[in-house]
Structures are given as C-alpha cells and as structure tokens.
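Hypothesis: this fold can be encoded by more than one sequence.
Test: take the structure tokens below, design a sequence, compare later.
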C-alpha cells in the first residue's frame, strides 16, 4: 500500500509540474485564445451569404437571430452604437460572441437584437446586411434603431480597465475584444460612410438609462484607438 501511495504522489507531482510549465510558457495562448471560428455548437452553424446577391458578411460567422427579434425592414445607417452584453465579470475568459447570440435569441421571447456580437471567439454577424443598408435591429430604442448599426461586445464593466479595478484576465479579454471591434467599426464606417462622430456608446442614447460599454472606456480607450487606426 505504501508503494502504491508513493507512486500516486510522484505521478501527481509530475502532472502538476508539467501543467505549470505549459502554463508559464504560453499563458496568453492557453487562457486567452482568439478563436476565429464559431463556438462548436450545432445552433451556431454559420450561414453563407448568397452568392451573386448584394448581401455582405463582415463577421467570422453568420447566424441570423430569430425573426421575432428584429424588424424586417432595410434601413440606411448613419450611426454605430456600441454595447456590452453583461456576461459575468467573474469569468472574462468565457466572454464569447456565441453566448451573446444565445442570450439575444432567448431574451424577451427573442425580442431583442444587434447586428454583431464580438467576443474571444471572434465576430458573429447576427442580422442580414447589404451594400446600401442593413436590417433594422431592436437594440437601443426605436428612434435610434431606425438608422444605426449596433455591436454587442461580450462582458461588462469595461470602465474598470482604466480605473485599476479589473483583474488581469478581464483587462486581457477587454483588449482582445476591443481590437476586433475597432477593426469591425472601421470597415462599417467605410462601407456605410459613417463619421467617427457618430460612433457612440449605449449610455449616450437619450432615455436609455444604460451605462454600457462605459463612458471612461469609450472616451479614453476605444475612441482614441479608433482614431489612431483611422489615421493610419
């Protein structure tokens, strides 16, 4: 019995050392992978844009939300609204765009929508978009929904990134998601001729009572990064 116990103890130690070495050598790659494919669940199977049509696919995957979640009307956007989807701050390593899709599909019997979800698993396009317009979403209120493209970033409390209250894991997740969102916004600005002055946060929507994605974050981190990339 003593020999068996000793053998188990040695094997356990070897496994722990191996795991620690792997973690130390590739911490970022192990914990914060940017997977540019959809989360592997059947309901998130990508849908191809029709060839030869004027439909546009901007994301890493395309999966339309239920019909009850959007207005079946094509609008011409002149504004981009940035949201966060309020996923748990305790698990920032799991801030996935597919979780955003699932939350919207099940919310209010499928009565809410945005055009994109951005997470550690990439960019998901949730509504049909065209060269000259987009399907109207239900994300920020009827007045703004009628002339905007809207993006939901995974997570919450993005202001904490700048006030020192975010964990290292949360900071890294926000950085990854922000980088993808900024690139997406640049493409949308060019495609629909939207000026940077019309890139706003959900908190700026009059009467919304919302705080996402965070005023400090948007004004001191997101927009400066967007302006820098726009200048380049």
């Amino acid at each position: 019995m003593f020999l068996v116990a000793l053998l188990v103890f040695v094997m356990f130690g070897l496994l722990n050392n191996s795991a620690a070495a792997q973690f130390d050598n590739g911490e970022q790659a192990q914990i914060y992978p940017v997977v540019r494919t959809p989360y592997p669940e059947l309901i998130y199977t990508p849908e191809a844009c029709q060839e030869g049509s004027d439909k546009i696919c901007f994301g890493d995957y395309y999966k339309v939300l239920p019909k009850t979640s959007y207005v079946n009307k094509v609008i011409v956007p002149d504004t981009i609204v940035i949201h966060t989807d309020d996923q748990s701050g305790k698990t920032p390593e799991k801030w996935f765009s597919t979780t955003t899709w699932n939350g919207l599909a099940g919310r209010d019997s499928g009565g809410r929508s945005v055009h994109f979800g951005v997470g550690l698993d990439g960019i998901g396009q949730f509504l049909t978009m065209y060269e000259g317009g987009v399907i109207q979403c239900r994300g920020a209120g009827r007045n703004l929904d009628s002339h905007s493209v809207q993006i939901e970033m995974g997570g919450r409390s993005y202001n904490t990134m700048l006030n020192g209250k975010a964990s290292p894991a949360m900071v890294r997740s926000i950085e990854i998601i922000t980088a993808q969102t900024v690139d997406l916004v640049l493409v949308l600005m060019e495609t629909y001729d939207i000026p940077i002055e019309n890139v706003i946060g959900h908190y700026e929507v009059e009467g919304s009572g919302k705080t996402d994605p965070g005023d400090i974050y948007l004004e001191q981190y997101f927009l400066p990064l967007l302006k820098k990339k726009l200048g380049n």
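The longest helix spans residues 168-192. The two ends are 68 Å apart (CA to CA).
Hypothesis status: open.
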